[in-house]
Amino acid sequence: MQLEWLEDFIELARVRSLSRAAENRCVTHPAFGRRIRALEEWAGVALLERKQPLSLTPAGLLFLDAATQALEGLNTVRAQFKASGPTQDTPLRIATGRTLASDFFPDWYETLSERFGVFPVSIVTSGAQEAIRRLAAREVDLLLIFSSPQTHLLIDPDRFQSMTLTTEALLPVSAPLPDGSPKFAIAADGQGPVVPWLALSPTLTLRGALARHLAGLPHRLSLRMIYEADSYEAILEMARRGNGLAWLPRMVVQKSLDSAELVIAAGAQYQFSFDISLHRLRANHGELLMSIWKGLQADAPKMSAD
Question: Is the same domain home to 257 and 279?
């Protein structure tokens, strides 16, 4: 039996919905169902009444009480172990994406260190869904992420506390022609020849956000995807080499814009803003985590409901 099965069961008992519990636990519905069945096989009894509305069997109610006490006890002991150990050796664990880890985190960490003192940190990078799963499973203390409607759906405000750190822009960029104009440009009315597009992979948070923004424009752009990657840096290099037009975060392209290796390839209507946000599990009250969170909370321009 795995501890995450107990967390799954407690969440299911709370929301009384397999689909919503699976979403809150950041796993697929089928995978969540398999984990609950595995827990029942381990217990040797049926824990659920599989009818609408979903309810617990008498054995399930007894098991819920035992599971809750077990997890609370283990978490309490774990917190005591952490408190008794040397604080300087316990890093703040942060899940984020590769681009935020390289282009945003270093400056942000220096700002935090000036304010709260130098502290150890452990960074793990992945896609958004995996990062959210790690936060839900208490494998990390904080989630640093590009915000989008998709991530908002996966981050349940009942379980997670959130704040916006800053606002970033997604910019259409192209290598320049000798006269400084973009090699691949989009006219104000969207008309013109088909433009080769260096696309973000659908696995990246900002791909969906870009699609929604472009779909809301009064005209459809003539784009032909010639390259797709799940790395902003890989797309940046292709754009610098003059292979097509790309939409990239300002933090990724700023140095290339400053050096004129890239230029803005379209007007303001083809650009849009998005948030960089920070999230924590409400049940996690680590001393270092809460000290930093409360300090940032006072400065955050926007926050989710508390």
Answer: no
Task: Check whether residue 95 and residue 182 sit in a common domain.
Answer: no
- End-to-end CA distance of the chain: give it in Å, rounded: 34
One domain for residues 177 and 247: yes
174 and 253 part of one domain: yes
Does pTM surpass 0.85? Answer: no
> What backbone torsions phi and psi does residue 130 show, to the nearest 5 degrees?
-65, -40
Alpha helices in 195-258 (DSSP H): 205-215, 232-240, 250-258
Tally: H helices and E strands in the chain: 12, 12
Sign (positive or negative) of CA dihedral 224, 226, 230, 235: negative
In tens, the pLDDT along 161-194 reads 999 999 999 999 999 999 999 999 987 776 778 9
Give every CB contact of residue 282 below 8 A, 6+ residues apart in sequence: 158, 159, 160, 161
Q: Give the chain's domain count.
A: 3
Supply the Cα-derived Rg of the chain in whole angstroms: 23
What band does 303 get if pLDDT is binned at 50, 70 and 90?
A: very low
- Do 99 and 233 meet the contact criterion of CB atoms below 8 Å apart? yes
Residues 8-53: tens digit of each pLDDT: 889 888 888 888 888 888 888 888 888 899 899 898 999 988 887 7
Domain match, 130 and 151 both: yes
Helix axis angle, 3-15 to 29-43, nearest 10°: 110
Domain of 265, in residue numbers: 169-273
CATH (domain of 78): 1.10.10.10
Are 193 and 222 within 8 A, CB to CB?
yes
Residue with tokens 């595995």: 38
User: Do 24 and 11 contact (CB within 8 A), yes or no?
Assistant: yes
Q: Is 144 helix (H, G, I), strand (E, B) or coil?
A: strand
Two structure tokens written together for 287: 């001393």
